[in-house]
Amino acid sequence: MTSTARPDIPQGRILIRGAHLLTQDPALGEFVGDVLIDDGVIAEVGTGIDDAGATVIDGADRAVLPGFVDTHRHTWQGAIRQVGTGWDFPKYRQHIQLTWGPQFTPDDVYIGNLVGAIGAIDAGITTLRDESHIQNSPAHTDAAIAALRESGIRAAFAYGWPSIDSDKWMLRGEATHPDDIRRVRSQVLSDDDALVTLQAMLRGPELSTLDVTTQDLAMARELGIRSSMHVGNGPWGPQYRGIGSLGEAGLLGEDLLFIHCCTSDDEELKMLADSGGHASVSAAVEAVLPGLGAPATGRLLANGIRPSLSVDTEASVAGDMFNVMRAALSAQNVGVSIDPASYEFLPAFTPADLLAMATIEGARASGLDHKTGSITPGKAADLIILRLDAANLLPANDIAASIVGAGHPGNIDTVLIAGQVRKYQGRLVGLDLTDIRHRAEASRDRLFSVELVDG
């Protein structure tokens, strides 16, 4: 997939002129100015930059941000998006973990990942942590990685476990992490400077056991990769204390990303902060999937952790960060209304804070803040340009508030990843969407024909 399919697509040296820049870089701040892109990198940020040899993009009535970073998405479910809107967790488990997951072929994984990744790009997500628990065979894994590469997105492929024999792998399963991750590390994703890199999605003490997690984490650290774990999931959080048990075992570290944390207690969150580890709030899913618990955004902030944000699964929610940012804000304010005693002393957060969580904090949580997450000279040109003159945003009285409060993927005019234009003038670049749609429909239809397994 290349941007040469349309001759109007800017390529090479690009200058974005006179845009409202929300840089997410404290040294640069927010101002009206220019961004020069050269050889895939942000070469200069300022005003009055020389446009010699550059294709100029007019930034008038535009906002430029670093691309959004989604730190937790089960991307393989892209072709069955929104089928579970309104489900609770038992129904999600019955359909996806017990029925459809075991039936996924490598082709299903490929088209699911491709649909999910290009949908993310369309929504302004330039970096995706693909939490892949569809490792039914090495061919499934390779298909997932191939789709990420084909899409052009920056991705951390978080190698998980099979969606076959789910009870063996989840709900306190005692199998250790699949050894095939070693093949992927040595033969497929060995380059940590590539656009698609390797991480690990471990089950952690709440989905497996502390002994298993100890072995899994030792393997990930031996391979030199970062890891994520789901913790604080409804009743499992207080029962098994995923963060707390790791802390007591001396296993916490900066290389760990903890997802949800809804029912992790404050002592655990303090342990997490002290370790330098990270958190991902999936506020949209947490708000609609009963049983997970309330989004932990305010509690994380109160304990010194600036969380990242994530979509989780498109089977249940929309795959864009606008929806997640609004859900985080809504959940906090609903909590204040219905349980003021619990929320009274939690810090408030602003639209500007939410944009930081969706960009630079996501990059930090993914271990990629040296490459992306802010409009900083020397970083990769992972940028989004939003139209502030769109009917739903004008007159954009407070730009951050307008984006968080009313923005949607249709407002995103242009997306660049490593300097390559992947969306331009509101249209994805270099894709045969008709073919992708037909392949996604065929995958969906085959899966929907499978008789449901009793949960």
Can you walk through the features of this model?
β1 and β2 form a beta hairpin. The chain folds into 2 domains: 115 residues, Urease, subunit C, domain 1 (Roll), CATH 2.30.40.10; 298 residues, Alpha-Beta Barrel (TIM Barrel), CATH 3.20.20. It is 37% helix and 20% strand. The protein is α/β, with parallel strands linked by helices. Strands 1, 2, 3, 4, 5, 14, 15, 16 and 17 form a 9-stranded mixed beta sheet that branches.
Structural descriptors:
455 residues; nine-stranded mixed sheet; 37% helix; eight-stranded parallel sheet; TIM Barrel; Urease, subunit C, domain 1; alpha/beta
Looking at the overall shape, the CATH architecture of the largest domain is Alpha-Beta Barrel
**General shape:** globular
Assign the CATH topology of the largest domain: TIM Barrel
Let me know the CATH homologous superfamily of the largest domain.
Metal-dependent hydrolases
Number of domains: 2
* Secondary-structure content class: alpha/beta
| CATH secondary-structure class of the largest domain | Alpha Beta
Unreliable parts: none
Distance separating the two termini: 41 Å
Number of helices: 18
What integer is the average pLDDT?
Answer: 95
Helix fraction, binned, reads 25-40%
Q: Could you describe the largest sheet, including whether it forms a barrel?
A: 9 strands, mixed
Radius of gyration: 21 Å
Please outline what is shown here:
The protein has 455 residues and is α/β, with parallel strands linked by helices. It has helices at 89-100, 106-122, 138-151, 166-169, 180-188, 204-207, 210-223, 236-240, 242-248, 266-275, 283-288, 297-302, 321-338, 340-343, 351-357, 360-365, 399-406, 433-448; strands at 14-22, 30-38, 41-46, 55-58, 62-66, 68-73, 125-132, 154-159, 196-201, 227-231, 256-260, 278-281, 308-309, 383-387, 412-417, 420-424, 427-428. The model has no long low-confidence stretch (mean pLDDT 95).
